[in-house]
Design goal:
Elements lengths: L17 H24 L12 H19 L24 H10 L11 H29 L3 E2 L2 E2 L1 H5 L1 H19 L2 H23 L3 H9 L2 H15 L1 H15 L3 H24 L4 H4 L13 H6 L5 H6 L5 H8 L4 H26 L3 H26 L5
Antiparallel strand pairs: 1-2
């Protein structure tokens, strides 16, 4: 990885570093592109019925409104604190790993010899929008499957608009995102990611059935952990892998580096899923949902502790709900298990960061990546520190 001088990332009068200014500018560009994409989905085509007609009004309620709610919400998305004088300084911004790949492989503004083509930038911009919209579609569909009524403190889409319209909206967003990506290599990448995500979700949902629960309870620890890792790599790991896979497809990145990035994102995804599993036992992180996720056996903490489950529960496969909650929260090894899993999350995050830095073209690129994942990475570290202090469970 090439280095740069400290001055290369000097801060301006507002305290924003040169790299963060680029991150903010790229994130603001993505927000503008998302707004244009949303407008294209919620505007009646030429010659359509007037909005005040019965058909127009029905279309507005059943399609345009839920699409706008699904794509337009900024709640829970802010990763960069608004800063006066910065690009989109007063708006909540979420950096994109698609743009990190663009900066890493095509350069930063004003750097000699790093002039990207207009075609590359256009492909990356379309890919970034497609990725974000696919993630929004996944949220809408997952909330229905998981029975989640709240998302980031707001009513879930199916609560506001009903399950039929939420299903339709999620499906429409998938097709619209793939069409928007346009570049065949990017579309193929996104299709693979959608398939992986749906596969992982299917396995996750299966843990609510008596048969899969019985099989998991009866399986040895190594097989339970392998089950979790396969599921999490598909369900959560895909959320991290999809942006980079789409970006490197658009930019034609060499295969060796694609494999490095793919494995790094897999590790980040597993670290993120561990974090999500652990927050169910730490009130400071789980909030109102702490001690509520006991309807299935996909949580890694549950799977780690099953060896000592009562024989009757192991045989019946009915260790779920109140029985599972009582068993896990009263387990003598719970705190040690939480600490070990939190440490694993920290290590997986560290390994991922190190791998990504290994393919960074310059120090600016490394800093860009750090800023992009800082919010989730910081939370993984903070959860481990919280558990070390004896808090949680």
């Amino acid at each position: 990885m090439a280095g740069t001088s400290a001055a290369a990332d000097a801060t301006d009068a507002s305290g924003i570093s040169a790299v963060e200014a680029v991150v903010r500018s790229d994130a603001a560009l993505l927000e503008d592109d998302l707004a244009a994409f949303l407008a294209s989905l919620t505007s009646a085509p030429p010659g359509a019925s007037a909005p005040e007609s019965v058909y127009g009004a029905a279309l507005g309620r059943s399609l345009y409104a839920p699409v706008a709610d699904a794509v337009g919400s900024k709640v829970g998305q802010e990763a960069l604190v608004p800063a006066a004088g910065a690009p989109a300084g007063r708006a909540p911004l979420r950096p994109s790993m698609v743009f990190w790949a663009y900066r890493n492989y095509r350069g930063f503004p004003g750097r000699t010899g790093e002039e990207a083509s207009a075609a590359d930038l256009a492909a990356v911009r379309r890919a970034a929008v497609a990725v974000r919209v696919l993630l929004k579609a996944a949220v809408a569909l997952d909330d229905i499957q998981d029975g989640s009524g709240i998302r980031y403190g707001e009513p879930a889409l199916h609560v506001t608009h009903g399950i039929p319209l939420a299903l339709n909206t999620g499906s429409l967003l998938i097709t619209a995102a793939l069409e928007h990506a346009a570049e065949p290599a990017v579309v193929r990448s996104l299709l693979r990611s959608v398939g992986r995500g749906l596969t992982g979700q299917a396995v996750d949902v299966s843990t609510r059935t008596a048969l899969t629960r019985a099989e998991l309870v009866a399986a040895p620890l190594a097989e339970r952990v392998a089950f979790w890792e396969s599921m999490a790599a598909l369900k959560t790991g895909t959320l991290f892998r999809m942006p980079l896979d789409a970006a490197v497809a658009a930019l034609g990145v060499v295969e060796d580096e694609r494999r490095v990035l793919d494995e790094a994102m897999r590790n980040l995804g597993l670290a993120s899923q561990l974090f999500n599993d652990l927050t169910d036992f730490v009130p400071g992180f789980g909030g109102r949902t702490t001690h509520e996720d006991f309807g299935q056996l996909s949580n890694r903490v549950f799977l780690e502790l099953l060896d000592s489950a009562p024989a009757g529960a192991r045989a019946s496969g009915e260790l779920v709900g109140a029985r599972l909650k009582e068993f896990v929260l009263g387990h003598p090894d719970l705190r040690e298990t939480l600490l070990l899993l939190a440490a694993e999350a920290v290590e997986r995050k560290r390994a991922a960061m190190e791998a990504v830095r290994g393919v960074c073209r310059c120090e600016r690129s490394a800093r860009y990546f750090d800023v992009t994942i800082d919010r989730k990475g910081h939370l993984v570290d903070r959860l481990h520190a919280t558990l070390l202090k004896g808090e949680g469970a």
